[in-house]
Write a structure and sequence with these properties.
- The protein is globular, with a radius of gyration of 20 Å.
- A seven-stranded mixed sheet has the order 8-10-7-11-9-12-13. Strands 3-6-4-5 form a four-stranded mixed sheet. Strands 1-2 form a two-stranded antiparallel ribbon.
- By secondary structure, it is an alpha+beta fold.
- The N and C termini lie far apart (42 Å).
- The protein is built from nine helices and 13 strands.
- The chain has helices at 4-12, 59-76, 95-111, 161-169, 177-184, 190-196, 210-221, 236-245, 250-253, and strands at 21-23, 31-32, 38-48, 80-90, 115-123, 127-137, 152-156, 202-205, 224-228, 260-264, 276-283, 287-292, 295-298.
- Helix 2 runs parallel beside helix 6 (190-196) and helix 4 (161-169) crosses helix 5.
- The protein has two domains: 4-137, 60s Ribosomal Protein L30, Chain: A; 152-298, PurM-like C-terminal domain (Phosphoribosyl-aminoimidazole Synthetase, Chain A, domain 2).
């Protein structure tokens, strides 16, 4: 019979790899050291069954995604991930589920050299919480509140792929395997976050939808923006979805892409990282607008919000 501590020992205990991790799993607290010239970046995300993921989700993909969404927050701050904690609430102990979940979680942790340093296990509805800890050079972290009028708006990767994956899971008939992969196993843009520290004026990760997340930058920076629909980086599958359904706003308001949306002063445009696309401009007039086929309209639709 597995107990709380034997679950940790069997599925989650790992040997720390980062020099900042002085003490990992096994004591009342973990111990981390902060190198001179750096500060901590800390983020927390919770995922609840039937709210954030389907009950029949592949547990290895769930483990991957749970960690990825937290590392994506660190990427948006330009921080280097070093350690995470995991709080795992389960209705019952399922060894096969735990084996696959921990495999997906720890595989991504190993890829980014992240130490699992502690957490908690308890009984209840399936609820998963990760706290991720990273390091950013002193006063060089990226923020949402520092976009300026005239800055260009960029994003990494493709837009709406995860949204299309969700539509497929909800019944939309489409053979787009990559969209399902992007929904279940997003990859945080850690390296691009590093590169943006020297050139970006603001940054956020696209978790709740481009319109919603860019809206946070606009609100906190006290500015507005216009997006150019014709410049949005859309895959052929997403374009086909729009053409067949007429749902033009899906890629703009759907979440789970976990790409980075950031702003750059025009003088740094030639230093934008590869595989990034300029999609709009920051303006002094408040609000978010969408330019499509030469017409400009106010964009009022938002992405996912809890308690709405």
């Amino acid at each position: 019979m597995l107990t709380e501590f034997s679950i940790i020992d069997k599925f989650f205990k790992n040997t720390p790899k980062n020099p900042e991790t002085r003490l990992g799993i096994g004591d009342d607290c973990a111990l981390l050291s902060i190198p001179q010239g750096y500060e901590l970046a800390i983020t927390t995300d919770t995922m609840v069954e039937a709210v954030h993921f389907f009950p029949n989700v592949n547990p290895a993909q769930l483990g991957h995604k749970l960690l990825a969404v937290n590392l994506s927050d660190l990427a948006a701050m330009g921080a280097t991930p070093i350690a995470v904690t995991l709080a795992l609430t389960m209705p019952h102990i399922d060894e096969n589920w735990l084996t696959e979940f921990s495999r997906g979680f720890l595989k991504l942790a190993q890829f980014y050299n992240v130490d699992l340093i502690g957490g908690d296990t308890t009984t209840g509805p399936l609820t998963l919480t990760v706290q991720a800890i990273g390091l950013a050079p002193w006063r060089q972290s990226l923020k949402r509140s520092t976009a300026k009028t005239g800055d260009l708006i960029y994003m990494t990767g493709l837009l709406g792929e995860a949204g299309l994956g969700l539509k497929i899971l909800q019944g939309y008939d489409c053979d787009a395997e990559n969209a399902l992969v992007r929904f279940h196993e997003p990859m945080p843009r850690i390296e691009i976050g590093f590169a943006l520290r020297e050139i970006a004026s603001s940054c956020i990760d696209i978790s709740d939808g481009l319109a919603s997340d860019l809206g946070h930058i606009l609100k906190q920076s006290g500015v507005g923006a216009t997006l150019d629909f014709d410049k949005l980086p859309l895959s052929d599958d997403v374009k086909n979805y729009i053409e067949s359904t007429g749902d033009v706003l899906m890629p703009i308001i759907s979440g789970d892409d976990y790409e980075l949306c950031f702003t750059i002063p025009p003088r740094f445009a030639n230093r934008a990282p590869k595989n990034c696309t300029a999609i709009g401009i920051i303006e002094s007039e408040l609000g978010l607008r969408l330019k499509k086929s030469g017409q400009i309209e106010i964009l009022t639709a938002k992405g996912y919000e809890h308690f709405s």
